[in-house]
Design goal:
Length: about 400
């Protein structure tokens, strides 16, 4: 802690001062948490936990000190994220790097899906997460092949410090610990040591930003021994699928964040395609979209409207095109039944895409002997199946209501 604080204070200037509370400590919490920040004495509501200047952030601006990186950036025209990963690996390879004390705090391995084997990824069969993972893995490989691989043996870039595994590690550091900063995305030393706040717990701290500093301030009293956590979702609670892909862990209870995507596609071969496309556009909807559903929520209005429009008969299309009332309202009872039945079919097909059913997953989770990765995969797919089953119950209730209304 003392060595790291010395590193932080080494960046101070008259305008950029560093403040870290004396009532906290960086400790090894073990298990899935790893390192974290814990209160050593009582911190009162309103107290500053830490306040760090922006100039300490690790951003691409610092890469300009290396002419070789500037040349590579110009020649390769690489993305900002890929250049950040290249800069991180290059800085790590410098024995006298001014960041060495910060680099010592970074995790050396991840349980994120980027590092899973094919057998481990097979446990996600049927989940949207598997498609996202495969897409990301392909993107990572393409980035390495086009950016890093051609540089091996040139410009002091060697195959050990710039291997594919190290490339994956650097990207994982950026995805899991990156911040939106005034000068762009980057890494913020010390702030990135705070672990994720479980969704069931109230916030310990608020994050404040101004032109010079990023500050964490206590929003309630924090007692000695309590871990100080921060929310990883700035605007919404992240799902376990996203947490697993980006951070390598899941929460035991994440009902507020977990979701499943219901796809919608208006095929060009659909009868009255052009007219239906205009109706979708009139409703502010797309011809292709994925709608998020959560446990216990109502059927998303835009999802239902999209399916209503796609299943209009030619006569209904003509009437709908002339209607003066809102395009978002039901068109007819028959159309409503068709839309609900179609959604039932889509949701059932999604459930059939998994290799196991919910009951088998629950039995596996209750048994012992599962690896951490397999347990997380089973938990994610079980949560998705629970959401889909509840969605089916909701649709069946809607269908029953339509029948009773006849």
């Amino acid at each position: 802690m003392d060595q790291f604080l010395s590193f932080l204070r080494g960046w101070e200037t008259d305008d950029y001062r560093t403040m870290v509370s004396e009532n906290i400590s960086i400790v090894d919490l073990g298990g899935k948490f790893g390192r974290g920040v814990v209160a050593t004495s009582t911190i009162e509501e309103g107290d500053i936990v830490s306040s760090l200047p922006w100039n300490i952030a690790f951003t691409n601006d610092f890469a300009s000190k290396y002419p070789v990186l500037s040349r590579i950036r110009e020649e390769k025209k690489i993305s900002t994220t890929n250049f950040s990963a290249l800069f991180l690996l290059y800085e790590l390879s410098q024995p006298s790097s001014q960041w060495r004390d910060y680099f010592a705090t970074l995790p050396q391995s991840f349980d994120t899906t980027l590092f899973w084997s094919k057998d481990e990824l097979f446990e996600l069969e049927g989940s949207d997460l598997k498609h996202f993972v495969e897409s990301r893995n392909s993107m990572v490989q393409r980035g390495y092949d086009s950016t890093i691989s051609p540089l091996i043996g040139r410009e002091n870039i060697n195959s050990n410090d710039f291997s594919l595994e190290r490339w994956k590690w650097a990207l994982s550091i950026l995805w899991s610990r990156g911040f939106s900063l005034p000068s762009g995305a980057g890494l913020m030393p010390f702030i990135d040591l705070f672990n994720a706040l479980p969704p069931s717990e109230p916030e310990f701290v608020s994050l404040e930003q101004n032109e010079t500093h990023i500050t964490l301030r206590a929003t309630r009293q924090i007692l000695p021994g309590q871990q100080i956590s921060v929310s990883y979702g700035k605007y919404y609670q992240l799902s376990n699928a996203q947490l697993l892909m980006d951070y390598g862990f899941v929460f035991e209870d994440n009902r507020a964040g977990n979701s499943v995507f219901i796809p919608f596609r208006l095929q060009s071969s659909t009868e009255e395609y052009s007219a239906k496309l205009k109706l979708l556009q009139k409703a502010g909807l797309n011809k292709s979209d994925n709608f998020s559903i959560k446990l216990g929520n109502l059927v998303p209005r835009d999802l239902l409207v999209s399916y209503r429009i796609s299943l209009l008969t030619p006569k209904e299309v003509k009437r709908a095109s002339k209607r003066e009332e809102s395009i978002l309202e039901p068109f007819s009872r028959n159309n409503e039944v068709r839309a609900i039945n179609q959604l039932l079919s889509v949701a059932n097909n999604l459930l059939r895409g998994y290799n196991t059913d919910l009951e088998e997953d629950l039995r596996l989770l209750q048994s012992g002997g599962l690896s951490a990765r397999k347990r997380m995969a089973i938990q994610v797919r079980a949560e998705e199946k629970t959401i889909l089953r509840k969605f089916l119950e909701l649709l069946e209730g809607e269908l029953e209501s339509e029948a009773l209304a006849e």
